[in-house]
Amino acid sequence: MNIPLSRRTFLSGSGSLLAARTVLLAPQALGAASGPAPASDRVRFGMIGIGMQGSGLLGTAITLPGVECVAAADLYDGRHTLAREITGNPTLPTTRRYQELLDRKDIDCIVAAVPDHWHKRVVVDACNAGKDIYCEKPMSHAAAEGFEMAEAAQKNSRIVQIGSQRVSSVLCAKSRELYKSGAIGVVEMVELTLGRNDPTGAWEYPPPLDLSPANLDWDTWLNDAPKIPFDRFRFARWRCWKEYGTGVGGDLMVHLISGMLYTLGWNEAPRSATALGGIFRWPDGRNMPDLHAVLFDYHRTPVYVRLGLGTETPELARFMGPKGILDANGGELRHSPQRGVDTAPSYYSSGFPAKMREAYVKQWEAEHPVTPGREPLMDDTVYKGNDWDDVRPHLWNFFQAVKSRKPVAEDAVFGNHAALACHMANESYFRKKTVYWDEGARRISEG
What we know:
This protein has 3 domains: 7-26 and 340-375, no CATH class; 39-165, NAD(P)-binding Rossmann-like Domain (Rossmann fold, 3-Layer(aba) Sandwich); 167-223 and 232-338 and 381-445, Dihydrodipicolinate Reductase, domain 2 (2-Layer Sandwich). It is built from 13 helices and 17 strands. It has helices at 7-12, 52-61, 78-87, 99-103, 119-128, 143-155, 170-180, 218-222, 232-236, 247-264, 354-367, 391-404, 412-431; strands at 17-24, 43-48, 67-73, 94-95, 109-112, 132-135, 160-162, 189-195, 272-278, 291-298, 301-308, 313-321, 324-328, 332-337, 377-384, 435-438, 443-445.
């Protein structure tokens, strides 16, 4: 009795074998120091903002050879104490006025980790004062600001590096290398996803226990945002409000977008963004969505992004092409090649009469000979390295650029393009319609 062949039957008999191998990537060499660097060879920086992210940047930066923190600024006095604790220097100069750091001749550059609504002012002021600056992501709080920041960097010949640190990781370098080598062919679609499911992941941070208008310059902290009475939760959880932050777009999406742009060698804003989302899990007074799904058009290449704060899902950047897939996550990069050809007679022939089907299969096998034991082997290769978001090499690259004056990968132009994607995603969400990037007018439009 002739039994029609199903698609599964055909594929299981295809003769293709699947294997995987693991490659360990060596971390980037950060330079060996046989002893303390001479004063003439040291990079001396000032730290602006010593909160959750800033404290980590400060603690990491001072472990790099030849790098020294000479002063710190923050509007909350408790972080002055923290800066001295991190550096181990009880006499480290601290101030509420970051301008004092810009005026110091013994400071070569700035590392800044401040809320999004402060980025433009700090970067432009630093560039105008002749200081190079490392600024946390996203580069800007609004679309127009990024161009002012990039122009200030160019006008003053300053190094500006934005802090989406994955572009300096060995994993991101490998993904870029593989793509440029044609490992998956020309990319046809990208999927970027990340989900959290805990209060801290949703920015429900505990405010400092002693926070008050006595030890925080609240009016200055508000900057150009609407003036409101002191609110310790807005200080600690500023990402929840569009007046100060850029939501999951600026916090999470910009990392994914930056890694994508670097991997693919793109340096541009998307043509359009179509977003859906809402506040589903955290109705705590915030006005930024806790679920944000966006479809971007990058010169006709679809890029889908899904970010959520109500379900834990792995971080994944998936690059799909006719020759296979690159999957990048927090600790590894997987290359899954695909041949893109039939490896068995077509299951469509199951609709042929038996004699015709037998003739077709015989002809197919004659045209596609495979020697037993020589079946095609399609290896998955898994590359493992330091964290995809490895901040140490990113800071190192910045400090080296300060000395060498060589350009950085994530400069003001690159950082602006990554930030524009986030702004377009937010604008689409709030306007409830597709938005477009008008390159000539440098603005987000509705068509």
